[in-house]
Amino acid sequence: MASTDKGKSAVAELAASLSDVRVTPPRKPTSLLPVGSFYSLSKKAKPRKLVSLCLGTLGQHLEDIIADISEFTVFFPPHIKLAILSIARRRRLLNDEVLTSLVENSWEILDVSGSDVTDVGLATAANVCSNLRAVDISRCENITTVGVSEIVCHCPSLEILRCGGCPRSEFTARRCLNLLKPRLNSHEEDSWEELKTVDIGGGAGSLRWLVWPRIDDNSKATLAEECPRVTINPQPSPFDLCGSKVPVEAFASIPLDHTIVEDIDPKTWAVSAAPRRVVDPPNPNAPPEIPIAERFRLAYVEREARLAPKRAKRERQQRRRAERDYVMNDINARSIALAAQATRNLRKS
């Protein structure tokens, strides 16, 4: 109990120190810079910030405090919580409980790709973070159209959506096409492009970029017809797309939360959580498995049978030793023993 209290106090002190340190967001490259140039700029050697060093140390021991993360999150500012979320995702520790413990209403991006987050956790985040403009749900096996609908309904500023990457996520993306189509309040304009945001009554009206690397031709054709404002899988280019620059978050080759952990040592998440143990399918021809209680009982019976001869021999030895000690210490018993021995000798003679 003392060590736990000591650990909590240490985390509280660390949180207090981090709350005074503000992270300056790195400069976002424009669409005129290719992706290679972006990474070449970020690879320049420079001393890491103190807050990044603290987050790296905290992230390396995240498994030890992940069960009690809700007790510590109240001390951390929003940008630190977002960094912890990014580290937890990379260490394969992100689930609904961790997400709901860290979520803040000031967040503008949310990356839960490849995690165990479900529709419940995503819906909670959507209700809290109504200002989200970029969301990554790719490679999420537990997110369905229910979670995506919550994002679309509660995040009117959503501009970037990342999806796909695994069979389940691909299926969810195809099912969500109707959710992305805007529903119009006005039909007076000659072109859909001439409508204003207030004329869009529902759907992902603010969506501009969809990152879906393995999109099928039918879905691409449907989006091109129903959502002409949406650009699918934008690529770095020296030219502007539709007269506007493509944000870095819309490039599939760059992680959505890359700028959040750019200054943190990658060794923080080099050792991920223990991989899930693959369970072999049951063999129908195999004998039924013995319950664990019956195994203990059989092992006890076998041990008793193996030790029974040794115990009987030890009891005989102890009984003879007790009889000998009694004869040697008691005068009457010794007299009787000597008389019996003399009688045997007289009979032999």
TL;DR?
The protein has helices spanning 2-19, 35-42, 50-60, 62-65, 69-72, 78-90, 96-102, 119-128, 145-154, 167-175, 177-180, 217-226, 292-329, 331-348; strands spanning 109-111, 134-136, 160-162, 183-184, 200-202, 209-211, 231-232. The protein is mainly α. The radius of gyration is 36 Å and the shape is elongated.
Structural overview:
The protein has 349 residues and is mainly α. It has 14 helices and seven strands. Strand 2, helix 9 and strand 3 form a beta-alpha-beta unit. This is RNI-like superfamily protein.
Mean pLDDT: 79
Bin the strand percentage.
Answer: 5-15%
Helix-strand string: HHHHHHHEHEHEHHEEEHEHH
CATH class of the largest domain: Alpha Beta
Rg of Cα set: 36 Å
Task: Write the CATH architecture name of the largest domain.
Answer: Alpha-Beta Horseshoe
Count of discrete alpha- or pi-helical segments spanning 4 or more residues: 14
Q: How many distinct beta strands? A: 7
How would you classify the helix and strand content by structural class? mainly alpha
| CATH homologous superfamily descriptor of the largest domain | Ribonuclease Inhibitor
State the end-to-end distance. 83 Å
Q: Spans with pLDDT under 50 lasting ≥5 residues? A: 21-43, 189-195, 197-201, 272-277
Indicate the CATH topology of the largest domain. Leucine-rich repeat, LRR (right-handed beta-alpha superhelix)
Biggest sheet statistics: 5 strands, parallel
Helix content: 40-55%
Number of domains: 3
Strand order of the largest sheet: 1-2-3-6-7
Q: What's the overall geometry?
A: elongated
Organism: Eleusine coracana subsp. coracana
Protein name: RNI-like superfamily protein
